[in-house]
Every structure is written in structure tokens, then in C-alpha cells.
Write a structure and sequence with these properties.
The protein is an alpha+beta fold. Helices cover 28% and strands 33% of the residues. The protein is built from 5 helices and 30 strands.
Length: 495
């Protein structure tokens, strides 16, 4: 009986393999034709807004894609079989070769040794970097001591803005969505006066630099200037509150704040008529501020314009237009006739009124989302905050790029900068208030728990530069304002 050679046997196996593969393709094609015919009959019987020709073309394309996937699947199965065959052959050869097990063990030991070295190196690097980060946090936050001193409760809705008077008597002013503004005793937490002249949400409050006058902006498309007279009550002994590190912000509760309609706010006197009403906006007036000297005020509105008014005559002096979307905030320089306006168009603008004959404006595009606020510092800096979760510090002499960028994990609302200590307070949507220096180094985070801190979005912060038990105030949508005592002695000594 003739014996086949190795080459003839292999050629016959290849022919059988090609034959079986062609048979499988024919079978697949015939099955596809039957399936396509059935699907076309089903498509003709279904209701569709697509033309029949377009549906048929889509069906052909999907059929081609399915056939390609089937071919890839068959090739994958064949490749897996070849890999298994090769593995079996290598295993058989390894058993017959002398010293095969020793070689395999040596390779395995070498691989495990290199892997252990790599993992140990990664662990050492990670541990070193983590220790460096933690130590840097401890170095900064250990200097800061934050103490909750007083809570100011009495508004029936969220508080948008707050401010502290620049002259005696020192009082705290709050602007609320409940259509009212309140003046508070900083030391006792009692309401001293309530302003009820607005017909809409009170979005902003600022005090005159030298007189007992307040400027409020409202959703009723107006800004009011009203005079006040208050008498501070006798301070009561303050309960001893233990000093709390600023990073102790364990959150135990997210429940709503009680209405807090205490006896103080209900019994305090009220004012219902303003001394001056500023009307010319066609939308919500979101913010207002006094220019240096207090003879003019600027207002920012959702009608995409900011207006400059004369206080004595109530006349519109200039209309500052150019923003593409609603304005969110306006601020004036403490010593110069400069105004900065921020907008939802991701820009803020610097308006210069120092020269009466020239009113220049500069546009700055440093953010990628709504600029919620931009404020001046006593020096030549502007600090801007945005919904893009960044805060940027700019130099007025060179505003091409920020000198510092602070990145956070939440949108930033109306920020404030301490005049004496040059510390930036950032109120966030996530109920936190963080403190940074002008170079962008984080100093502290105010406590936030079920016993102290805000339970809702923090809308605004304001510093008090005078000698007081509270040197920082914050307000939010939990209907309360909070007075804090911030002490960073070691940091101040370094600077």
C-alpha cells in the first residue's frame, strides 16, 4: 500500500480546510440571503417614515457589517486553535529538553524579581509624594485657627449679599431674596433695622464710605439709596467656643435650616421709603457699589449694561455697554475712579474714569465660564472668580496673563479680599469657604458640620477690617449669615 509523503499530506489538509471554509461561506451567504429576504418582507410590513429605497440600502449595509463580523469571529476561533496547538507543542518540547524546568524557573524568578522591584519603586515614590503633600497641608493649615463667633438668623429666604459699614457704628448689612435688607449688631447678633422698600429680591448691599447711607440693588429693576440711624445694644458675654482648626469640616447633616424667625428681627424697626431711587435698567439689577468719594454709584444689570449715576441728582451719567450677556457683579476701586464689571459672557471689563474727558475700557478673557465676581485689592491687583472653578489674580499694570491661578472643586461665588492681611475668601456652591493668599497658596477651610457652618450654597463673603470679634462674614441660601474669627499669626509674621 503506498505511503503518503509529508508534503502531500499537508497539501491535502490545506485543500480540505479551504473547501470547508468555502462551504461555510456559501452556507453563510445562503443563510444571509434568506435572512435578508425575510427582513425585507418584515420591513415592508412595518410603518416607517423612511423611503423604502433608503431602508433597503440601510439593510444591505447592516448585512455587510454583520458578515464582516462573522468572518472575523471565524478567524478568531482558528487563531485560538493554532495558539493552543503551539502551546501544547512547546510544552512537550520543554519536557524533553534537559534543564527546561530550570530555565523556566530562572526566567520566572527574574520576572518576579523585576516586578517586585518596580512595585517597590512605585510604592516608595507614591509614599514620598503623598507625605510631601500631606506635610505641606499641615504646614499651612496648622497656622490658621477658625472660630465661629455669631450667627445672624432672621431672613425668610436665601441671603445673596452682605457688607460691613466703613464708619462707626459698625454694623453688618444683609441682602435677601425675601425682598428685604437687614442691619445687624455684629457683637450681639440682633437685628437693628429692616429695609422693606424693594418690590423684588434684594441682590446687593453696600454702605457709603463716610455717611450712614446704604445702597441696595434689586430684582425690581431699581437701585435704592436710603439713610439709616441705629443704636448698638450693650454687648452680652460671648459663650466660650473652643478653637476649631480650619480643616475640620466633617459634614453630618444636609437638612434644611429652620425659618429662624426670632423675636429680634420681628421687633426691629423698619424703613419702607428710599431717599433716592435709580431707574433706567430694563432688567434685574444684580449689584451696585459706590465710587470713591461716595458722590457717584455704579449698577450692574441683567440687561447687559452697567450704569453710572450721580447721587445728588439721580441722573444717569454714563451707560457702560459692551458685554454680550447678563452682568453678574460690579466693584469699584477703594482709592481710584476705576470700575470692574463681570458677566456671563466669560469676560470682565475694567472701566477707567480717572480722566473726565476719556473713559477707557479693557476687556479680559481669562475664564471659560461665567465670571461671577471681580474685585479690586488695595494694591494694584484684581481678583476674579468664575463658574469654571478657578480664581485668578491679576496685576493692573500688566493684565495680559494672571500672576496666580487658584483651582477649586466647585463654582466660586462673590469673593472678597482682606485689606490688611491680603487674604482671599472664596465662597463655593458646595457650601464651603476657603481662604488663600495672593500667591495662590491655600491657608484654611472654614468648618462645616451639623453644628456649625453653612448647610446650603455660600453666596458671598465680606471682611471686617476694624477691631471686632468677627473679621470675616459669610452668607448663603440657608437663610443665615455667619461671623467668623480668623487667626493666622504665624503666616502674618512670615510676610
Amino acid at each position: 500500500m503506498p505511503v503518503e509523503s509529508g508534503s502531500s499530506a499537508s497539501s491535502r489538509q490545506a485543500k480540505q480546510k479551504r473547501k470547508s471554509h468555502s462551504l461555510s461561506i456559501r452556507r453563510t451567504n445562503s443563510t444571509e440571503q434568506e435572512r435578508t429576504g425575510l427582513q425585507r418582507e418584515m420591513l415592508e410590513g412595518q410603518d416607517s417614515k423612511l423611503p423604502l429605497s433608503l431602508r433597503s440600502n440601510l439593510l444591505d449595509l447592516f448585512g455587510q457589517i454583520e458578515r464582516e463580523f462573522e468572518n472575523l469571529y471565524i478567524e478568531n476561533i482558528e487563531l485560538r486553535r493554532e495558539i493552543e496547538t503551539l502551546n501544547d507543542r512547546l510544552t512537550a518540547e520543554g519536557q524533553t529538553i534537559d534543564g527546561g524546568d530550570f530555565t523556566k524557573g530562572a526566567l520566572k524568578a527574574k520576572a518576579s524579581h523585576s516586578t517586585s522591584q518596580l512595585s517597590q519603586k512605585l510604592k516608595t515614590t507614591y509614599k514620598a509624594s503623598t507625605s510631601k503633600i500631606v506635610s505641606s497641608f499641615k504646614a499651612t493649615t496648622s497656622r490658621a485657627v477658625c472660630q465661629l463667633v455669631k450667627e445672624y438668623v432672621g431672613h425668610r429666604d436665601g441671603i445673596w449679599d452682605l457688607s460691613v459699614t466703613r464708619t462707626q457704628p459698625m454694623v453688618l448689612g444683609t441682602a435677601s431674596a425675601d425682598h428685604s435688607a437687614m442691619l445687624w449688631s455684629i457683637e450681639t447678633g440682633k437685628c437693628l433695622l429692616k429695609y422693606l422698600g424693594h418690590a423684588g429680591s434684594v441682590n446687593s448691599i453696600k454702605f457709603h464710605p463716610t455717611e450712614q447711607m446704604a445702597l441696595t440693588a434689586s430684582g425690581d429693576q431699581t437701585a435704592h439709596i436710603w439713610r439709616y440711624t441705629v443704636q448698638l445694644p450693650t454687648p452680652q458675654p460671648v459663650a466660650d467656643i473652643s478653637q476649631t482648626p480650619c480643616d475640620d469640616d466633617i459634614d453630618f447633616s444636609d437638612k434644611d435650616e429652620a425659618d429662624g424667625d426670632g423675636d429680634g428681627p420681628n421687633e426691629c424697626p423698619s424703613i419702607r421709603v428710599s431717599s433716592t431711587t435709580l431707574r433706567s435698567h430694563q432688567g434685574v439689577v444684580i449689584a451696585a457699589d459706590w465710587l470713591v468719594g461716595g458722590k457717584q454709584v455704579v449698577t450692574a444689570s441683567w440687561d447687559r449694561a452697567a450704569n453710572l449715576y450721580d447721587v445728588e441728582t439721580s441722573e444717569l451719567v454714563h451707560s457702560l455697554t459692551g458685554h454680550d450677556q447678563e452682568l453678574t457683579h460690579c466693584c469699584t476701586h477703594p482709592t481710584q475712579r476705576l470700575v470692574v464689571t463681570s458677566s456671563r459672557d466669560t469676560t470682565f471689563r475694567l472701566w477707567d474714569f480717572r480722566d473726565p474727558s476719556i473713559h477707557s475700557v479693557n476687556v479680559f478673557q481669562g475664564h471659560t465660564d461665567t465670571v461671577t465676581s471681580a474685585v479690586f485689592t488695595v494694591g494694584d491687583n484684581v481678583v476674579s472668580g468664575s463658574d469654571d472653578r478657578t480664581v485668578k489674580v491679576w496685576d493692573l499694570k500688566n493684565m495680559r496673563s494672571p500672576i496666580a491661578t487658584i483651582r477649586t472643586d466647585s463654582a466660586v461665588n462673590r469673593i472678597s479680599v482682606s485689606v490688611n492681611q491680603r487674604i482671599i475668601a472664596l465662597p463655593h456652591d458646595n457650601r464651603q469657604v476657603r481662604l488663600f493668599d495672593m500667591s495662590g497658596v491655600r491657608l484654611a477651610r472654614l468648618p462645616r458640620s451639623n453644628r456649625q457652618g453653612h448647610r446650603r450654597m455660600v453666596c458671598c463673603s465680606a471682611w471686617c477690617e476694624e477691631n471686632s470679634s468677627c473679621n470675616l462674614f459669610s452668607c448663603g441660601f440657608d437663610r443665615q449669615a455667619i461671623g467668623w474669627n480668623i487667626n493666622i499669626p504665624a503666616l502674618l509674621q512670615e510676610k
